[in-house]
Design a protein that fits this description.
144 residues, alpha/beta, 37% helix
C-alpha cells in the first residue's frame, strides 16, 4: 500500500484525484504502477487501476494477471471492477471505501457477484484506510 499511496500523492501533485495503484506479481514484486491521469490525458478511462493493469499485462505479455495482486488506495468503481474481472486478477487489496461509487462492497459488489462468468477474486478491504481517505479529503478540501 505504501507504493500505491506514493502514486496517489504524485497524482495529487499533478492536479489529479489522488488514487494510486500497484500490481504485484506472485512473488510480491512490483510489476507495474498507476495513478489517476484522467485530466492530463483527457481519457475517462485513465483510472489508476486501469493504467496499472494495462502496464502489468504488457509487462507480463498476457491479458490475464494470474497470481497477481492489485493494490489500490480507493475502492474500485464499476469500470475498474470490470477491468479487474476481465484481467482475471485473483486478489484485490484496497484502502478507503468509496461510499458514492464503490463497486467492491459499498455501493455495489461486482467482484463477488456470482452471476458474472468470471472467477471471484479475493478482496482485502480497509488497508491503511484512514491514510488513504485523508489524502482524498485533503485534496477535495483544497478545491472547495
Amino acid at each position: 500500500m505504501a507504493d500505491a499511496l506514493a502514486e496517489a500523492r504524485l497524482a495529487a501533485g499533478e492536479g489529479e484525484i489522488p488514487v494510486g495503484a500497484v500490481v504485484l506479481g506472485p512473488d510480491g514484486s512490483v510489476i507495474s504502477t498507476g495513478r489517476n491521469a484522467r485530466a492530463a490525458s483527457l481519457d475517462p478511462t485513465g483510472h489508476a487501476e486501469v493504467l496499472a493493469i494495462r502496464r502489468a499485462a504488457a509487462a507480463l505479455g498476457d491479458r490475464y494477471l494470474a497470481g497477481c495482486t492489485l493494490v489500490v488506495t480507493l475502492e474500485p468503481c464499476t469500470m475498474c471492477a470490470g477491468v479487474i474481472l476481465a484481467a482475471r486478477v485473483p486478489r484485490v487489496v484496497f484502502g478507503a471505501w468509496d461510499e458514492k461509487a464503490g463497486a467492491v462492497g459499498s455501493v455495489y459488489d461486482l467482484l463477488r457477484d456470482g452471476r458474472l462468468p468470471h472467477p471471484v477474486p479475493e478482496v482485502v478491504a480497509g488497508v491503511r484506510a484512514e491514510e488513504c481517505a485523508e489524502l482524498l479529503a485533503e485534496f477535495f478540501a483544497e478545491r472547495r
